[in-house]
Amino acid sequence: MTQTCNADMPAPSLRLRIVFGDLVMLGPGKADLLERIHDTGSIAAAGRSMSMSYKRAWMLVETMNTAFQEPLVASSRGGAKGGGAYLTETGVEVLAQYRALEALVAEAGAAQVSALQALLRDPSDRK
C-alpha cells in the first residue's frame, strides 16, 4: 500500500559522502566548508557561518590538505593587513568535481528517492 506524500513534507535531500580508504572522506560538510572559504576568503568566517569553531574548521582544512596530492586551501597569517584563505587550483577542482557528482547522483537517483518518499508515513500520522 502506498500513500501520497503530504504537501507539508519537506523535499527530500540526498547527502553524498565519498570514502577513500580508512580515514579520507569527502562529504557535504567539507564541500560546504570549501565553498564558504572560497566565498569569504577566511577559514574563521567560513567556520562561523557553519556554527563551527575555528579550531574545527582548521582541522578539517588540514585533513583535506594532507589527503590530496596538493593542498586544497592556502592561507596567510593575520597582521596589519589581516590574513586570509583561498582555494588553490586543486581545491577549486575538488569542489567542482564533488558538486558535479552530487548533481549527477541526485538526477540519476531522483526516481528512487521519490519512490522511497511515497512509501513514507504521513507526518501527521507519526507520534
UniProtKB/TrEMBL annotation:
Gene3D superfamilies: Winged helix-like DNA-binding domain superfamily/Winged helix DNA-binding domain. It comes from the Bacteria. SUPFAM superfamilies: Winged helix' DNA-binding domain (SSF46785). PANTHER family: DNA-BINDING TRANSCRIPTIONAL DUAL REGULATOR MODE, TRANSCRIPTIONAL REGULATOR MODE. This is Winged helix-turn-helix domain-containing protein.
